[in-house]
Design a protein that fits this description.
about 130 residues; globular; four-stranded parallel beta sheet; alpha/beta
């Protein structure tokens, strides 16, 4: 994926994205993969003046992400969106919810597709699915 000068890269998802970020500091990237990727890209391409945002929230499922999609993604108008969500959907279904695996998969797919469609319609962002 080609990076452009002054691109804003948004990392959004669950705890794997969050990794202890300070939510009071909107520039805090946490201690996980968003921080590592940002450090690498800033070292390799300092002339691009990239901006990085982390909007991961521990415990989120795809429905939680969909509920905050407008505020935490669309309104930010990022140039690149990196999405990592799903582990909580999987283990919550196994441990707690009394729905079939197929119902859970269908729900996950529906909400994920809705978020992707909104991103395509309301931003010019390139999207990375993890």
């Amino acid at each position: 994926m080609r990076l452009n000068k002054k691109d804003t890269i948004l990392f959004i998802g669950d705890s794997i994205t969050d990794v202890g970020r300070n939510r009071k500091d909107l520039k805090d990237l946490g201690k996980g993969y968003p921080l590592l990727i940002a450090a690498h890209l800033l070292e390799c391409y300092p002339e691009l003046e990239l901006t990085f945002l982390n909007r991961g929230i521990s415990g989120d499922k795809v429905t939680d992400l969909a509920n905050r999609w407008k505020e935490d993604c669309l309104e930010l108008q990022p140039d690149i969106i990196s999405i990592l969500v799903g582990i909580n959907d999987a283990w919550h279904n196994i441990d707690k919810e009394k729905v079939s695996i197929q119902e859970s998969v269908d729900k996950f797919e529906l909400f994920y597709r809705l978020m992707l469609e909104k991103a395509k319609q309301e931003t010019k962002a390139r999207i990375i699915l993890i």
